[in-house]
Amino acid sequence: MNRSSYRYERKEADDDSLRDAIKGLAEKHSKYGYRMITLKLRQRDVLANHKRIERIYREEGCSWQEAQETQDKQRHQELS
């Protein structure tokens, strides 16, 4: 094993500002998925990997599909 590989220490990513930007866009545009959020962030000159944005998007529970399912359940309970 190479010495550089053995001594490698992973750097922790600073996701706080990116996380805030994703949450802000997701709240403002509830129908946007992670792909559109990625495009909007790139328009704002925020460079981040699309896989990283998708991971944060899922971790924050920003998925519009999840929100839609919750709303459907609430409506169903109100009608019952």
Q: Mind sketching the topology for me?
A:
Blueprint (H helix, E strand, L loop, with lengths): L2 H4 L9 H13 L5 H10 L6 H10 L4 H16 L1
Describe the structure.
The structure is a single chain. With 80 residues, the protein is an all-alpha fold. It has one domain (13-79). 66% of the residues lie in helices and 0% in strands. It has 5 helices and no strands. The chain has helices spanning 3-6, 16-28, 34-43, 50-59, 64-79. α3 crosses α4 (50-59).
Keyword list:
single chain; 80 residues; mainly alpha; 5 helices
Total number of strands: 0
How much helix, percentage-wise, in residues? 55-70%
Radius of gyration: 18 Å
User: Mean pLDDT, as a whole number?
Assistant: 85
β-strand percent reads under 5%
Helix and strand composition category: mainly alpha
User: What characterizes the major β-sheet?
Assistant: none
Query: What is the H-and-E element order?
Result: HHHHH
Q: Which residues form runs of ≥5 with pLDDT under 50? A: none
Number of discrete domains:
1
Structural shape: elongated
Euclidean distance between termini CA atoms? 65 Å
Total of helices: 5
Question: What's a concise summary of this model?
Answer:
The chain has one domain.
